[in-house]
Amino acid sequence: MVTTWLDDEQLNVWVRLKAVMELLPSALDSELRRAAELTYFEYYVLAMLSEADGRVLRMSALAARTNATLPRLSHVVRKMAERGLVRRTPDPQDGRSVLVHLTEEGYAVLVAAAPGHVDAVRRYVFDRLDDEQVSQLGAIADAMLDRLDPEGVLTHEYRRPADPGRPAG
Amino acid sequence: MVTTWLDDEQLNVWVRLKAVMELLPSALDSELRRAAELTYFEYYVLAMLSEADGRVLRMSALAARTNATLPRLSHVVRKMAERGLVRRTPDPQDGRSVLVHLTEEGYAVLVAAAPGHVDAVRRYVFDRLDDEQVSQLGAIADAMLDRLDPEGVLTHEYRRPADPGRPAG
DNA sequence: GGCAAATACTTGTTCCTACAACTATGCCTG
DNA sequence: CAGGCATAGTTGTAGGAACAAGTATTTGCC
């Protein structure tokens, strides 16, 4: 371990980055709960399913895309199934696996929630950034992800030219 | 509500920013738990106290600096007091308030944990960024904080010229 | 083809956090 | 110098996530 301290500018930047990481997710979570009775996490479960072929994913694939542990996802999906947002079926290919399907109702809930969520993302993130800063932020995030997620599990296929599928966000 | 969709680049950047916000805090939390038996939150409780005059803060001031609710902080501080990391005393100025003091032991734990934590921050955040990107990131975070924390409660005094106090992180 | 190991999930427990209700102290107003 | 209101914390309860253990299915190997 090298124990080099951060210089003053780095320390300053870190304090602000840390503040953003604490405030932004909870701000978005609040808006989703209020407007759509969805948690931030549940929203992205629906979003990931909506982007998948046939709107179906196996539990483990869904867990990877949402950065969830399997136990956590299992509990959440059970409750979402009780609400009718998703449906679970056994995988005919592999009896150990469970397929999670996005229902019509779940898709409708996502479509209803998406504009408000996207609007919140714009307000909090993009409104005050010019085009150059947006592309700078992309490069910076990429650099960090080299260390944090070298496999690109979470960025999925978003490191290639953008997937225009809607709704995403 | 305006319901403008994000353009492709914005969507791409958002996916990556979101990934950073999910992975980075938990990566830092893991390292602190492993190396120092401190949560990310507890570490910053100690850090905020260490930077305060006399290494003392009132509960409400500490809650503001750590972005915690008072109930949450109350529980955590009670446990940290049981471990001997902090000490609580009534405020002679105001009988409603409680002063939280950093103990020598708490300071020692912070000093022992800081190098590893700072090292992790460097590895995950700064190592792959050049000086220009660091300053870009500072400006970008500032822009977001205009909306997220207009009062600057969390950035405290870090928007002014850097406070060289060590250890911070 | 049968046994061991690996995979894919589920269930149960524990810890942590948020929200709500409560207590105690200080302030302010008539 | 009351009575009412605001402030500062604590405690209790309920929901969410992490970790550990258990179940079922498939795969690999002799």
Automatic annotation (TrEMBL), chains A, B:
PANTHER family: MARR FAMILY REGULATORY PROTEIN, TRANSCRIPTIONAL REGULATOR, MARR FAMILY. The lineage of its organism: Bacteria, Bacillati, Actinomycetota, Actinomycetes, Micrococcales. This is MarR family transcriptional regulator. Gene3D superfamilies: Winged helix-like DNA-binding domain superfamily/Winged helix DNA-binding domain (1.10.10.10). It comes from Ornithinimicrobium tianjinense. GO terms for biological process: response to stress. It holds the Pfam family MarR_2. Residues 1-146 form the HTH marR-type domain. It comes from the Bacteria. GO terms for molecular function: DNA-binding transcription factor activity.
